[in-house]
Amino acid sequence: MIQGTSEREILGAVVPELEAQGYEVFLQPSGNLLPPFFRGHTPDAVALSAKKNLAIEIARETPQARHHLQELTSVIKGQPNWELRVFWVTPTNSAAPLSVQRPAKLKERIEEARKLWTEGHYGSALLIGWASFEAICRALMPRSFGRPQTPSTLVEFISSEGYVSPSESDRIRSLAQLRNEFIHGDLDAPMDKQEIAFFLDVISSLEKIVEEAPELSQQP
Predict the structure, then answer these.
(1) In angstroms, how far is the first alpha carbon of the chain from the final one?
(2) What angle separates helix 103-118 from helix 122-140, to the nearest 10 degrees?
């Protein structure tokens, strides 16, 4: 059940990302929108598409939430076109903001991703590259990106700030979708080596911006 600001913030970030992937998203769906097998177990949202449908739940770590998720899992089990996707809410006072990485560490990880790419490990290169990408965005906007960010939020940031062109941001959005598919278990997701090389070039350019800005490169 959607209760607080954190839950709504998560949905506010997740919905545009799903819509960019071609889903039609419905928040707190009514009974006539849900298939009969849900039997009154209403998820926080559903995302519908021709390929697959998602039941989305925003949950806090409580016994009640665990019980509700077990019920939803049982309801969806055996439904080939449905998947349960859970986004966990972490109370803001329970963990410190993520640290801002120094340029030397950013460069080290980018070089690691390039080495993996050279060796043909394109999926691993993409994931380490994406981790570096988020760390770079956090270095560029430490006050806004102290918490984990969705891929769509990061792409919108570098696009709106003019770090990449509209056509480049479109290519990175496609890579964001590929990253999501791969990280959620689609191990056969097709990896385009040239597009991943392009992405590594982009994050290298962004790292240089961090390195050359004194107020950014001297972050603790």
Answers:
(1) 39
(2) 160
Which pair of structure tokens corresponds to residue 215? 């107020």
Domain that holds residue 85: 5-89
pTM for this prediction: 0.59
- pLDDT tens profile 94-112: 456 788 898 999 999 999 9
For 89, the token pair is 């809410």
Would you place residue 135 in the very low, low, confident or very high pLDDT band (cuts 50, 70, 90)?
Answer: very high
Cβ within 8 Å of residue 40, ≥6 positions away: 31
52/112 same-domain check: no
Structure tokens at 201: 């070039």
Q: How far is CA 193 from CA 58, 93, 108, 116, in A?
A: 35, 41, 20, 11
Domain with residue 29: its CATH number is 3.40.1350.10
Phi, psi of 158 (to 5 degrees): -70, -25
pLDDT tens digits for range 46-103: 999 988 899 998 887 777 878 888 888 888 888 888 988 888 776 554 456 788 898 9
